[in-house]
Amino acid sequence: MENTLNAVVLFKALGDESRLSILRMLLEGESYVELIASRLELTSATVSHHLKKLEAAGLVECHRTQFYMIYSVKRDFLDESLVSLIGTLPKQDDDTKYKQGIIDAFFEYGRLKALPAQRKKREVVLRYILEPLETERDYTEKEINRHIIKYNDDYCTIRREMIAFGIMERKKSADGSGDVYIVTGD
């Protein structure tokens, strides 16, 4: 949660054109409010306001030298990648949850209730049916039919759909006795 709050503050600070201009100027070297204001044609009060926002976000730091507050970019903070600040979403977990939700919705007691109408969901269901089979192995039509019928009686439609999706291929057997099916694993 704290990392999220830091990212929000950071992006709010970077979301202003004047602040970005100030940061660009500070990347060239440290400076003070009056000089920044004159170069960017802003008021000193406006520059001070923006510098406080940048400081709160951890992008700049300041130190006093005689009469001036000197501002500079916190290089170590800028060297940190945005990915680490934002964090990465657990895509694998979300993807797995999504697929499991589809499987739960379309299977009851291990049997397919109906093929989903949506193409993406249909592919998830078909891949789930093929999971127990080995990839790149030749299966006879009878073997494939026996496997599919465990999930649904309409093995012909399901087999055709698997071929149409490219997750299974049909080829002539080497001995010419019939077709063989290969789970592609794609």
Write a structural description.
With 186 residues, the chain is α+β, with helices and mostly antiparallel strands. The protein folds into 2 domains: 2-86, Orthogonal Bundle (Arc Repressor Mutant, subunit A); 91-183, Arc Repressor Mutant, subunit A, CATH 1.10.10. It is 55% helix and 17% strand. It has 10 helices and 8 strands. It has helices spanning 2-14, 17-28, 33-40, 44-56, 75-79, 82-86, 91-106, 119-130, 141-149, 155-164; strands at residues 31-32, 60-65, 68-73, 107-108, 111-112, 138-140, 168-172, 179-183. A 3-stranded antiparallel β-sheet has the order 1-3-2. β4 (107-108) and β5 form a beta hairpin. α2 packs across α4 (44-56), α3 packs across α4 (44-56) and α7 (91-106) crosses α8 (119-130). The longest helix has 16 residues, at 91-106. The two termini are 37 Å apart.
Keywords, separated by commas or semicolons:
single chain; 55% helix; 3-stranded antiparallel beta sheet; Arc Repressor Mutant, subunit A; 10 helices; alpha+beta
Q: Brief description of this entry?
A:
The strands form three sheets. Strands 1-3-2 form a three-stranded antiparallel β-sheet. The chain contains ten helices and eight strands.
CATH topology of the largest domain: Arc Repressor Mutant, subunit A
Arrangement of strands in the largest sheet:
1-3-2
Structural class: alpha+beta
Query: Can you tell me the CATH architecture of the largest domain?
Result: Orthogonal Bundle
What is the mean pLDDT? 85
Order of secondary-structure elements: HHEHHEEHHHEEHEHHEE
